[in-house]
Amino acid sequence: MTEPEIGSSFIPALFKPSALLPIAQHRDVLLYLIETFPVTVVVGHTGSGKTTQIPQYLHQAGWTTNGKQIAVTQPRRVAATSVAIRVAEEMRCELGHDVGYSIRFEDMTSQSTRIKFLTDGMLLREALVDPLLTKYSVIMVDEAHERSLSSDMLLGILKKIRKKRLDLRLIISSATLDAESFLNFFTNDLPVTAAAMVPAAGAVPGGDLGKIISLEGKSYQVDVQYLEEPSEDYVETAVQTIYDIHKNESEGDILVFLTGREEIERVVQKVAEYADTLNPNAPGLLPCPFYAGLPTDQQMYVFEPTPDNTRKVIVATNIAEASVTIPGIAYVIDCGFVKLRAYNPTTGIDTLTATSISKASATQRAGRAGRTKPGKCFRLYTEASYNTLPEATVPEIQRSNLAPIVLQLKALGIDNIVRFDFITPPPAELMLRAFELLYSLGAVDDYAKLTRPLGMRMAELAVEPMLGKALLSAPDFGVLSEMLTIAAMLNLQGGCWFWHEGEKKAHETARRKFAADEGDHITLLNVYHAFITKGKKDAKWCRDNYLNFKAMSRAVSVRNQLRKYLEKFGINVQESLGPEVLTAGGIGKPEKIRRCLTAGYFAQSARMQPDGTFRTVDGETVLYAHPTSLMFNRKADWVIFHEIMETGSKVYIRDVTKIEKSWLTEYAPEYYQIEKARQII
Ligand code: CDP
Ligand code: MG
């Protein structure tokens, strides 16, 4: 009876493969490169071990001694949490000790944390407090190919930090072969246009500054099939394809790419109904939804092993394209679309639109089927339409509302943003629009300098600028306690309600209990107060009222954290009991709240038309209240809204509250001064 024997028999299967991962044979070279060069670009297929193994190699090699940490950034919250859980399991430590994660409003780290997974946005936030990110010996920007807004910005900041911190090591990891552009970004100090004029000869990519390493991960043949004719309804075609695979193909799980929650729920429901009709002894079908708004515990189902004699069908958004590893996928169904945020600087409308994917995305999606054995990819479009797809997706920075980014850069002390070293510079109109909005919110002054304290505080608060402005204006209106609650409720991904299919009526009745005439924001406030007083310790109360207990508990924690930010600014929060009408000075609480919301959201206002639709201030865009909004079937005149989303041919607004027209000019005189004012009148 020797120790090692007992030990080895206890190694769960889960931990065995890491030595077999493609990355394992590159371990020494990787460590050598990281030791020797400031920048290392790592390229390898999804699943090759970049995210889970590199931080462990670094930890073992001593990069975490002397209290230093390793940061690994992820563009998505779910990726940050799921890989942290995985690495903690592999290292057999409790989550939050040696291995932790930090995402907005959720910090799972401690003094002893050595490997920290965090969203790229969180690392940017840390730079506000510690501009040189001194606690990290190595920073790995993971999934850099996704070109998320925050990771692009992070690359620019890290380029600056690196020059001041010779000890810092950077790892840029990417699932695609576009590695040279990342390395060139770090090695090239000339503006892109000037550099392009220098003859390329003699320019050794990287030089002494960095190297590229490719982990030629094993991948199997993926047989790609196209439709003969375009599909009228790809959701329906996806369902049929699932049935066909289940009937005709050998075992292996299915991963379906769709664009959003509604499509996903439709497919999940159909597959679940179909699964019920299958012979109980025949192989079963188990549909699992997977999208960002899904509560974390439900997202985790997709990572669990598939039960015996069952085929799992993971129905996902783009979230499953690259940043998370889902074992066992043999079949991919690709609808060819992705929901992309695109901001129109002329109208100021941020829309989430289903857009054709790029060839790079299509390849990446198909690749998910060939990780463990040869697979098949069913593209729900024709080969001819594949050929018309763009090569790569436009980076987020070229199609986003840049106000939050500009605010952050300013707060990081980068004053000349136009000359900031972006890996891809954003279009001038987007920059201009961002400055206009920040100026009208009072975050920057006439010289485009960050105002203090307002602008600086808006940057430090972990909410978007309009909400930040409303929150920071709340003390002036005497509604800080209420705005804190509203801000927390607006930050719940996926909202606070449970939508049970087929129970819409009951759900409506439940919601009516909380509904406020003034609109969605005060309704959210009512929901929160009811939860605090009646449902906080009572999950059943939540179920009876169609409220998501987890989401509501999260609102409580988000609210606490926002309150801490305010207290750090020296703003005292006097908790009030509820939205009851307190008529101090003749104005009731609800009106004060609506005025305060207007002070933040004046740029997102609209007016209801006799037919029940809304029109933007300039009269050019028709907006519809989203079915989840109280204003869906109520009368209103002027309103402000929190979110705007274009689906199909309609532009929907969500979280809508009634306001008075005169408040717009009262709280945003400059914004509504010029031609817009004329149209209002
Ligand atoms: O980052 P990269 O895509 O290169 O790979 P990874 O996320 O480090 O995953 C390496 C391997 O770990 C995968 O091939 C999976 O077998 C396994 N893994 C897993 O089973 N469950 C996770 N949550 C993460 C990884
Ligand atoms: Mg990864």
UniProtKB/TrEMBL annotation:
Its EC number is 3.6.4.13. GO terms for molecular function: ATP binding; hydrolase activity; RNA binding; RNA helicase activity. SMART domains: DEXDc (SM00487), HA2 (SM00847), HELICc (SM00490). Transmembrane segments: none annotated. Residues 31-195 form the Helicase ATP-binding domain. Keywords: ATP-binding, Helicase, Hydrolase, Nucleotide-binding. GO terms for cellular component: catalytic step 2 spliceosome. InterPro entries: DEAD-box_helicase_OB_fold (IPR011709), DEAD/DEAH_box_helicase_dom (IPR011545), DNA/RNA_helicase_DEAH_CS (IPR002464), HA2_WH (IPR048333), Helicase-assoc_dom (IPR007502), Helicase_ATP-bd (IPR014001), Helicase_C-like (IPR001650), P-loop_NTPase (IPR027417). Residues 238-413 form the Helicase C-terminal domain. The keyword Ligase does not apply. This is RNA helicase. It comes from Pseudovirgaria hyperparasitica.
